Amino acid sequence: MGNRTTVEIKAYVPAKDFDLSRQFYRDLGFAEMWLSDDMAYFNAGSCSFLLQRFYEKERAENFMMHLLVEDVDAWWQHVEAQQLVQKYGVRAEPPEDRPWGIRDFILVDPTSVLWRIGQGIESGPA
């Protein structure tokens, strides 16, 4: 049957204003690793995505990304320190423990893509 080992999966994230979104993701903490006229490859640790110069309102407003990190509070502090809400006019909600075992925060990018950035909650003693 051959080797069916996977290597990576990447989402194609839409951008209404490609250059504004590129700067937003750099400010969020992603490294822009590659760029063409219509696409940018972003990376943070072992996670990556492709930002594309493509926008359809309905798709963008229903597009979600989920990023698991080691320290969600450090990421939130970075979002606040970079003043992403004020600088880009985006929406963000602070970290909260969720009933499904994740502590996360919500960040909506300039195109209306919803990001949930979080970490698993350690289960403590009963």
Compact overview of the structure:
This protein has helices spanning 18-28, 57-61, 72-81, 84-88; strands at 12-14, 31-35, 39-44, 47-52, 64-68, 92-97, 102-108, 114-120.
Please write the CATH class name: Alpha Beta
Shape: globular
Helix run count: 4
Rg result = 16 Å
Tally of separate domains = 1
CA-to-CA gap between the ends? 46 Å
Mean pLDDT: 94
- Helix/strand order, N-terminal first: EHEEEHEHHEEE
Low-confidence stretches: none
Biggest β-sheet: strands ordered side by side in the sheet: 1-4-3-2
CATH superfamily: 2,3-Dihydroxybiphenyl 1,2-Dioxygenase, domain 1
Please name the CATH architecture: Roll
Major pleated sheet? 4 strands, mixed
Alpha-beta classification? alpha/beta
Helix content: 10-25%
Detail the topology: elements first, then pairings.
Blueprint: E1 12-14, H1 18-28, E2 31-35, E3 39-44, E4 47-52, H2 57-61, E5 64-68, H3 72-81, H4 84-88, E6 92-97, E7 102-108, E8 114-120
Textual characterization of the structure:
By secondary structure, the chain is α/β, with parallel strands linked by helices. The strands form two sheets. Strands 1-4-3-2 form a four-stranded mixed sheet, covered by helices on one side. The chain has a single domain, classed as Roll (2,3-Dihydroxybiphenyl 1,2-Dioxygenase, domain 1). It contains four helices and eight strands, in the order E-H-E-E-E-H-E-H-H-E-E-E. The longest helix is centred in the first third of the chain and has 11 residues, at 18-28.
